[in-house]
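Final report, section 2: Outcomes. Of the targets proposed, Class I SAM-dependent methyltransferase is the one most frequently requested by collaborating groups, and we therefore present its record in full.
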Amino acid sequence: MADQNHQVYIAREIVHHYSQLRQLQPAEQTILNLFRNQWSNMKMLDIGVGGGRTTQYFSRIVQEYKGIDYSEEMIAACQQRFRSQSQMFEVVDARDMSQFPDNSFDFILFSFNGIDVVSHCDRLQVLQEISRIGKSGGYFFFSSHSLQGLEREFNWKTHISFNPFKTYVNMIMFTLLRFFNRSISPHQIKSSDYAIVQDESHNFRLKQYYVRPQEQLNQLQSNFDNIRMFSWQSGLELITQQDLSANTDMWLYYLCQIK
Ligand SMILES: C[S@@+](CC[C@H](N)C(=O)[O-])C[C@H]1O[C@@H](n2cnc3c(N)ncnc32)[C@H](O)[C@@H]1O
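The predicted structure is given below as tokens.
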């Protein structure tokens, strides 16, 4: 899984795609506002920095910024994009961040579902590494695909709309999703804590980890505290159980504090 995904992230057209991205996602904007009085004292690590979409917002306001990615090509694109600050970027794999000492960072970001392209075992290793290099009381903010959102995608009935053209396009995408994941049944999606799925991103080339929010909380519990969840689409916090169970976002953002 990890090797196949790495191949995608070194491909020229994919690197180009990420280096063109400019906008913050709504939940990222929420966090930018939430910590507005603290950024200037923070040492930040931006994991899976891609083409530097988030760099332009954060590197200017934090005390120190480092962007890392396991794709050499993504890092080269960042160094090209931020030519005068190329030293901010480094090729590092999140599964082994041994070049960073313990307690190095105040704020660690792993945005836009970068954590979802490694295996289950590697994901736990990444979380372990983050808790090691993050300062106690520091923050980790990341997003991950939601199995709850995917459940809806696996149900053909949810793709019917009043607009016949939209229904047609939805049905094609639904058929492709089911074709690329023919070994996974809707029942399996409903009854699993997590699943590895080839979704439509980058034309079904990536294998991505989708997790049930409760399972994500369980994975975080041993090393992180004060876990909060945000809708990626609205940027609003999911506060009540009702907010969470009604949510069908394809991915959610998690903010937590390192123990
Ligand atoms: C979906 S892209 C997001 C890029 C960027 N953060 C953004 O939001 O535009 C995910 C990024 O995570 C990187 N990535 C995936 N697994 C990684 C790992 N184990 N270590 C470091 N980077 C990783 C990929 O190379 C890719 O650049």
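The chain has two domains: 2-145+210-258, 150-195.
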